[in-house]
Amino acid sequence: MDNLYLFAVVSAALSAVITPLVRKYAIKLQIVDIPKDNRRVHNKPIPLLGGMAIYISFMVTLFLKLGRLTNSEIGLILGSTVIVIGGFLDDKFNIKPWCKLLFQLAATLILIVYGIKIVLITNPFSGLYQFVNLGIMSIPLTLIWVIGITNALNLIDGLDGLAAGIALISSITIFIIAVLNGRNEAAILTIILAGATAGFLPYNFNPASIFMGDTGAQLLGFLLAAISIEGAVKSAAAFSIAVPILALGIPIYDTLFAMVRRKINGKPIMQADRGHLHHRLLDMGLTQKQAVMIMYIISAVLGSFSIVAMEINAQRSYFLLIIVMIILILIAWKAGFFKHRE
User: Fold this and answer.
1) Is the pLDDT of residue 36 over 80?
2) Entry's PANTHER family (predicted)?
3) Is residue 132 part of a domain?
């Protein structure tokens, strides 16, 4: 356990040192976010590429750990590298959505080739079989899960420190779940990721001096999705669906609500709007810091539910997930989250 905390310290220290260097590099390459529309809440150009500091810190710390890299870790390294390349190109050249999707698809297929995929899920119904073997369906389900979470975290990256803080809370949540479940590899990966994110966060919190950009938001979403497959499991390596859906609740629900909102209002699913949770909180008169702290608290509460879901049986964990989803949908409906806002 002491070694785990050492990984976090090393990763955080590296990230804290590398981030200012990446900031200078981003300015030199003119990879800067210039506010052009009313969805952006900053009023001056801010350098991007902060995700590169998280990536470098995560990779260096992973290579420093004792022992050979496992097959899963190799897949994670290769997949993350593909994601970072795609994110870098998007931050620099603003590539088309289908191009980003190709990088995400390639990165996820690498995970699958190296054995990171959802093979078994816990059976929510009592009966003869405790687990359900997905067979060939494990490939499309893994693709949907990883690509979905990758984009979900990218979509909530709208306020200073928001995506990084949510990712940090989610990393700590999955770390606790992995430790409780004896998943040592997932525990190492999440504590390293938590450290890399924590070292970057002071530079990204309001007022931010650097943004993580698509490079960082996609990377964090990709890593959390991949590691949760390894960490959110019970006996026989069965994927407990309720656990990661709760642990990664904020980006998942905000994205689902956005899709439903745009469908109801006859808007393209991919069309950006000001209907996300952080926009709503700002429209209520909250400051950036206040809005971000509220979302941190919600994320932490959902994370605590995910830990509970891991400790109870499959039927109760699914029941808990359904109750939480119903409550969130009712709150979203009452708060007007499904009404379109430009």
Assistant:
1) no
2) PHOSPHO-N-ACETYLMURAMOYL-PENTAPEPTIDE-TRANSFERASE, UNDECAPRENYL-PHOSPHATE ALPHA-N-ACETYLGLUCOSAMINYL 1-PHOSPHATE TRANSFERASE
3) yes
CA distance 35 to 48: 12
Q: What are phi and psi of 142, to 5 degrees?
A: -65, -40
Range of the domain at 137: 2-240
The residue with tokens 């969130």 is: 328
Residue 209 lies in a domain: yes
Token pair 């060939």 is found at 136
Three-class DSSP category at 51: helix
CA distance 74 to 72: 5
DSSP H or E segment with residue 71: helix 71-93
Q: Does 202 fall in a domain?
A: yes
One DSSP character per residue, 35-47 reads: --STT----S-EE
pLDDT tens, residue by residue, 175-191? 998 888 888 888 999 99
- Our count of domains for the chain comes to 1
Question: Residue 340: left if φ>0, alpha if ψ -120 to 50, beta else—which one?
Answer: beta
Cα–Cα distance, 218 to 106 (Å, whole number): 13
In this structure, the dihedral spanned by the alpha carbons of residues 313, 256, 75 and 66, taken in order and rounded to 10 degrees, is -60
Tokens of 72: 């899963």
pLDDT digits (tens, 9 = 90+) for 202-237: 999 989 999 999 999 999 999 999 998 875 554 444
Q: Is residue 148 part of a domain?
A: yes
